[in-house]
Structures are given as structure tokens and as C-alpha cells.
Amino acid sequence: MRTSDFVPTQSQIVAITVAYDSEDVIADCLTSLLDQSVPNMRIIIVDNASDDRTVERINKVIYERKLNIGIEIAGDTPVNRPLPRVLLIRAHDNRGFAAGCNIGLSAAKHRSAADLFWLLNPDCQAERNCAAAYLQMAAKKPDFGLMGGRTLFCDDGRIIQSDGGQMSKWTAVCRNLNQGQRADLAHSPEAGELTFISGANLVASRTFLDTVGPMPEEYFLYYEEVAWALKPTPLPLLTCPDAEVSHRGGTAAGSGTLGRAPSAFSNYFNYRNRLRLAVRHCPTALPGAYAYSILKIAQLTLKGAFNEAWGAFLGLHQLQPTKAIQQRLGPAATRIAMGR
Questions:
Q1: How many CB atoms lie within 10 A of CB 38?
Q2: Label partner for 170 (CA 20 to 30 A): which of 15, 88, 202, 285?
């Protein structure tokens, strides 16, 4: 694969995707980004030390499109080198979702003149006018922090997964607004109703990055975008209902969807990080967060979902995960995740 000639970019938006063992989905995601109506939009893919053929699939798409790709190792590139059309940054280790996002955000912020940084999960496919819709909304309301589009479940008859989210001040439980509703019937929430934007499809402004800094990395997986949105800033959250993406969901971590319960792996980090979020951002919610979690664990146990319940119990009490979860993470990622 050839290395591109690096040229300055005049793009106003840079798309950033963090991939980990995403060989089954990354080609569709990258294709949808290359097909955006915004001309020459820059794309950054951060590979979080995948063990599968994720990088091979990325290169295949680029080769078939007869494009060039920049390939770099995280931390080894001067910050003054402009972005190519597509940049693949290979991380040394899987340091978690937020760490991967921050690698991409740093490259985009320091190596382009872009005002908007679009985080898109690798198991998402964006509608062709998604980036253009974000740019149009930002032009109308430039003084914002985070902006979210409409995220739909994949192949579910245009059923909404998230129109942004709210966090309970009593339990720290987060819920996605309009989840399960049909897109043609649901009204998008007002910006003032939101506590956070789903990390699967999120735009951060340059002003927001300059104000609050990078995404918090201490969660490893889940709740990092909530913690980011909760950082003190006068910049409001925005909604952009015309920016639609389809999200398969849970392809790497086993997150729950409308027809599938969360895995033990997913429960471990969800229950662990809900408590961590409450400690850092809403201490009054700690009793409610703990009580809610215990009740949910009891429900899982009564249903016979013992592995899922045990994963949640260990996470809630900030204990080491099971060997199965550690094997799925790998030794290096386990050390990083547990070190936080």
C-alpha cells in the first residue's frame, strides 16, 4: 500500500473511527465515510492493536477505491504534518475507547484546520449527507460543545437507538432518548433535555476540546462520553436529527440491543463505570446507583444469567474480572483497564 503525499486540508470536519477487532464491520463504515457528500473530508482510523484482519480490510477498501493512505504509529508522527485523505494510526496497545479517540482527536486538532471532529463507531454506517448536516447545523449554531445526530439500529425498520441521552441524578443510570421508537414518528429532543451524546455518533467542536480537554480515559469502555459531557463548560449540547447513522451495536463488546441482552464482558464495565461516574460527578447518586445495580444483578441471577450477573457483580465492586473477560481483553489491555 502506497503512502499518500501529505497535503494541507481545508476540510471543516474530520471523521475519527476507533477500531478494535473490527474486521467484520470496518469496510462498511469506511466506505460510508468515503461516500460522504462533503468533498475530500479527512478520515482518521485509529486501530487499537487489533488481533484480527481489521487493517487488511481497511487497506483493501482503499486499494479498491484507488486512493492513497497514510499509515503511522501512534506517538511517532510530528504534529505539524498535514492530514492525508485517509490516515490509519496504529496504537501500540489497546488502551481503551477513549484513549483511541484521543489519539485521533489530537492528530485532527493539530494537523488540520477543522472546527468539527466527528467520532463514529466502526460498526456504524453513515448516511451520505451526515457530515454535511453536521456542518450546516454548526454554521447555524457555532457556539456548542458536543453535537449528536440520530443513531438508528441496523436493519430494524428505522428504529432509533439514540437521540442523545439523559443520566438520572438519583442512580447515575443513563438512558438513550427515543430508543425503540420509529424514526418517522419520534420528535428529536431539545438540546436542553440532554445530559450526554452517544459516543457511537458524536461531534466535538474545537472550542470544546480547547475548553475541557481530551476524553477521560479512566473508564476504558463505557461512560467516557458521559463523563466528557459532564465536564464544566458553558458550551451547550446540540442535536442534529438530519445526521443519521445506522449502528449494529455490540460487535466488539457484546453491548445490549433491542433483541439481545448485554454480555458478561459488557456488564462488567457498565456496572463498574456507573459507580465510578457517580463518585466523580454525582456523589449523591451513589446509594441509588448501588441499590439499582444490586437489584438488576438479582434479576439476572433469577433468570439464570449467572455469567452476566457475576460479571456485573465483579464490576460493581471494582474487583478483577473473570478469566474469560481477561482473555478477551488480552494481558496488556487487562493491565491497562485494571490499572485505572
A1: 19
A2: 202
Is 90 strand, coil or helix? strand
Q: Is 207 a residue whose pLDDT tops 90?
A: yes
Amino acid type, 88: L
Closest C-alpha to 103, from 199, 222, 40, 19: 19
Give the distance from CA 142 to its chain's centroid: 22
Backbone torsion region of residue 15, taken as left when φ is above 0, otherwise alpha when ψ lies between -120 and 50, otherwise beta? beta
pLDDT at residue 2, as a whole number: 38
Rounded Cα–Cα distance for residues 96 and 93 (Å): 9
Residue 10's pLDDT band (cuts 50, 70, 90): very low
Angle, CA 266 vertex, CA 306 and CA 220 arms, to 5°: 140
Question: Do 225 and 216 form a contact (C-beta atoms < 8 A)?
Answer: no
Q: What is the three-class DSSP state of 304?
A: coil
Residue type present at position 104 = G
Average pLDDT for the chain = 90
Q: Are strands 146-153 and 237-247 parallel, antiparallel or unpaired?
A: parallel
Q: Is 27 helix (H, G, I), strand (E, B) or coil?
A: helix
Neighbours of 35 (CB within 10 A): 12
Assign 145 a pLDDT band (cuts: 50, 70, 90): very high
